[in-house]
Amino acid sequence: MVQRVHDVPLGYISWHAATPSDSPDAVPRLPSYRGVPVTRQTWTAIVSSLVFIALAAVLAFAPIPFVAWTPGATYDVLGTSDGQPVLRIEGITTYDTTGQLRMTTVSQTRADASLSLPEALFAYVMPHRDVLPRDVVYAPGKSAGQVADEEKSLMSTAQFDAVVAALRAAGQPVQELPMVTSVRVSGPSNNKLQPGDLILMVDNVAVSTNGDVVARIKDKGVGQKVVIQVQRQNTRLSVTIDTVGSATDGRVATIGVTVGTGYSYAPSVSFSLGPDVGGGSGGLMMALAVYDRITPGDLLKGQVVAGTGTMSATGEVGAIGGIQEKIAGAEAAKAKVFFVPAANCQDIAGITSSMTLVKVSTLKDAIDALPLALNPTSGQSPPAC
Q1: Which pLDDT does position 20 carry in this prediction?
Q2: Which end of the chain is more exposed for a tag (fewer CB within 10 A), N or C?
């Protein structure tokens, strides 16, 4: 008699059981794989291993609620982008500059992207990187489009405040005026006024403060026509608006706008940094760039200077996030000096850098510290954390 054994490809188990005609007293063999018996314990180990591998794969690729920060690109605000100057100034005398003023950025997980566990662990153990809870970086419930719009708005405000601060530091006249900051879509000013409009007159009476605007409109009463004269960019125009009752008190007249503080000045200043750059942390470097261009003398002495910090219209430097990542980005750009907002000094404790780290609280601090930081032989040191 010949025992029948079927050859099978690798990965399959063959059953080598004797047929009844071979031997009535034969004991059936255990299932085997290429002659190796496969016991219940072996099956358990195999299945457990497969389950473990599957779970590990799911865990590795499943998104986790964290965001990674890594060093981002740096931008020379005195340089060019796509062949065009990043900074354009008209309506005022400008001066040639040398060197580079590098605005630093942080590269972070996008609002519409996710971070896997291996990516988070890699960012955590690598130097100059941070991993933060997603809710700390992105407000819950906001779409990627909303986040992008907010970042653009912050950048627009930063540019505006940086220009005002630089003009004031250079001794240029800047007039403070009430400004439209938002327009209610369902209100009477929709399609008539725009955010950014500077309010010059209400019913042919000049106004200089937010309170002047509110008081003049209230005095008109509900259901009356009021003439608002505004400056929109370089154009002056007058619009007639019907007053309505306030949402909180129908007896109080309003025109459906919120009013903040704006500024009027002669020069035209604009920045072209590209659509991928947002947020307000570049304010300090933009203010320094404007100041350097509208004042005589060479502020940078041909050196590469980097930094970060928000900038108010009155010249105060504010704290930012990702300071360690920005320092790393500036080092990669071969900067010699890096400006650190005073409020961020605690975040760089223990950090060593090839750059001179200068602590600043105001735009004037940065302007005064640059000659000291760029000339170490002067015998005076700039402020440090």
Answers
A1: 47
A2: N
Two tokens at 189? 């000013």
Decide: helix, strand or coil at residue 278: coil
Predicted confidence (pLDDT) per residue in 198-235, tens digit: 999 999 999 999 999 999 999 988 999 999 999 998 89
* pLDDT(256) > 70: yes
Out of 65-69, 93-97, 313-317, which region has the weakest mean confidence (pLDDT)? 65-69
Question: What does the domain layout of the chain look like in residue ranges?
Answer: 1-61, 72-105+145-169+268-378, 175-264
CB 187 within 8 A of CB 244: yes
Q: Name the CATH superfamily for 175-264.
A: PDZ domain (2.30.42.10)
User: How would residue 31 be classed by pLDDT, with cut points 50, 70 and 90?
Assistant: low
Q: Is 332 left (phi over 0), alpha (psi -120 to 50) or beta?
A: alpha
Per-residue pLDDT reduced to its tens digit, 107-150: 877 767 676 666 666 665 667 777 667 777 777 877 878 878 88
Handedness of CA 279, 280, 282, 288 (dihedral sign): positive
Please give the average per-residue pLDDT across 318-327, as a whole number.
Answer: 94
- The tokens describing 83, both together, are 């062949």
Please say if the pLDDT value at position 377 is more than 70.
yes
Contact partners, residue 211, CB within 8 Å, separation at least 6: none
What does 280-334 look like in DSSP terms, one character per residue? STTHHHHHHHHHHHHSSS-SSTT-EEEE--EE-TTSBEE--S-HHHHHHHHHHTT
Q: Do 335 and 102 meet the contact criterion of CB atoms below 8 Å apart?
A: yes
Instruction: Provide the 3-class DSSP secondary structure of residue 89.
Output: strand
- 72-105+145-169+268-378 and 175-264: identical CATH topology: no
Three-state DSSP class for residue 356 = strand
Sign of the alpha-carbon dihedral angle for 352, 353, 354, 357 = negative
Helices (H), the chain: 40-61, 117-125, 134-137, 144-169, 210-220, 283-294, 323-332, 363-374
Q: How far apart are CA 210 and CA 182, in angstroms?
A: 14
Architecture of the CATH domain 72-105+145-169+268-378: 2-Layer Sandwich (3.30)
